[in-house]
Amino acid sequence: MKGAARLAPGRPSPAPAWETSDPYAAALRSGHGPLYLRRTDGWLLPLEVERWCARADAVDLDVLDRCEGAVLDVGCGPGRLVAELAARGRTVLGIDVSEAAVTRTVRLGGQSLRRSVFEPLPGEGRWDTVLLMDGNVGIGGDPRTLLGRVAALLAPGGLLIAETAGSDIDERAHVQVVDVTDGDAAGSPFPWARIGTPALLGHARDTGWRPAAQWTSGERRFVALRSSRSASSSAEPPNSTAVTSSQRARKPSADSPVTPW
């Protein structure tokens, strides 16, 4: 992303322009693209709309197997992960600033709110796992601010699982969602970041997180980070109950769901 505009540090806008992006909403309603993020210099990043609108695939399922307790999916999109966790009897909430995303998630059987991660959210400080999938570690264009916000959402010792970029980058830009097949229809510009695994681990160390795991599955890369507010437990696919305390929701089951909001 050479030549991209650099953003000054600070709190991102509480409502990124996904919510005003008609091309994004139209793509989610139809279930297919093509759709891109376009940088101010014209560079395009393809968005995997078809995969997002399909059922959770094998790579997704591996991530979900690593989740602990009650799960908050930040930027849940059309809801494939929320729906899969709900079908397992897990306590899960998706948030997204796109009305089309929330509508589709609910239609699939998941719970979802139209909300920015930077707005007040249900269950703050009590979530066991937060997901930042499909590039959502770039929300707001300032990964350190986002990491700080996620830390406030998690219970002590909680787990963040983030999907990182496929290359070792640490870039910020203003982008638009565009449909190049529809008269170059575009949403409003908003700040975004693309973060590779080494850069995310660096930001995490500087903001008080502890690395828990990192892995590659197919062509996708992931990092698990542990909140430093309490002792950690393994981020490997769990065979045991998540860490519990009087301030932390118990790992839910189909018979005794936990409702943290």
UniProtKB/TrEMBL annotation:
SUPFAM superfamilies given in the database record: S-adenosyl-L-methionine-dependent methyltransferases
Positions with biased composition (Low complexity): 226-235
InterPro entries: SAM-dependent_MTases_sf
Bias (Polar residues) ranges: 236-247
Region (Disordered): 226-261
UniProt xrefs under Pfam families: Methyltransf_23
Single annotated GO MF: methyltransferase activity
Record organism: Streptomyces coelicolor (strain ATCC BAA-471 / A3(2) / M145)
Lineage: superkingdom: Bacteria
Protein name: Class I SAM-dependent methyltransferase
